[in-house]
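seq as requested:
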Amino acid sequence: MSVSASYTFDERLDRAMHNMAVRGQKGIYVDPSSTRNNGGTGKPGSPYDDFEAAYSRLRAGYGDTIFLAGGPATGTSTNHSVRLTAAFDWAKPYTNLIGCGAPVHYGQRSRFTGPSSGGTFSPLFTVSAHGCRFVNFSLFDDYTVDPVALKVTGQRNYFENVNMQGMGAATGADDAAGASLWLAGGAENLFRKCVIGLDTVPRSTTNGEILMTSAAKRNRFEECQIKSYSDNAGHLFVKAANSGDLDRENTFWKCVFENCPTGVASGTTMTQAMNVHASAGGMILLYECMLVGATDWAAADNGNVIAYGSSVTANSVGLAAAVTR
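struct tokens:
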């Protein structure tokens, strides 16, 4: 299934469907807004209305793909959302999930969230499988305890144009265990042109938009935007605050780290963008990245955050934009 950047999203979707047919891979279609009494058959003209039913038909290791419909009927409609009733684990290796809504960056309406009454579980969505592709959808978690939109424990997965929105409720944004993306030992995953975080709910404690634990390693972020809205100076873009949280490197390439600064909203400038323990076990590498709304990339001069080939030191290398307006 091609994901070459030389094609538009629609062209790549058409190519993917053609290639699947040639190779004998399954394409399974889901439209959560469908009102079919029989739940659908998963075919293009009769999509499933139940995401879990579609997932049950995927064959691990065969490159099968779920195509998730998107809206909206109106600009604010979320009627195409998959409303999960329990924490979901994508555990089938070499399978794929593609959102078929407009390939915008923020809040795609090929979308996953919790029940309309509010979530009672977290993480919302876990990827424990290896070698999968996830393209063009959003995840929104407004659970109030340990709210995590996406947890990745698997390896060598590809994420493109996925919007991960954790801590979507005020109570959850005050939970130190919250995150938009949690890499719990996840390794060698690629995140390309994703938006991680949100700027509508103030974060009021020392949580991070990206949490790395359990020796997360060799994960790469390309042209991603990490967004936040902090009303606590201790909030972070990246948190690897404990010994052993990293292994080798995790790289950010041409990424933008954006916190709503004072003067734009009622935000608070972060003390630092990243908290990386002196004995984290690995490094954060920054290449051509921009930082807005934080005083430093890293306040501790322990050599574990490196920008442009130099270790970040307080109030010096790596700052690319004014932190207040």
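The first helix runs from residue 9 to 23.
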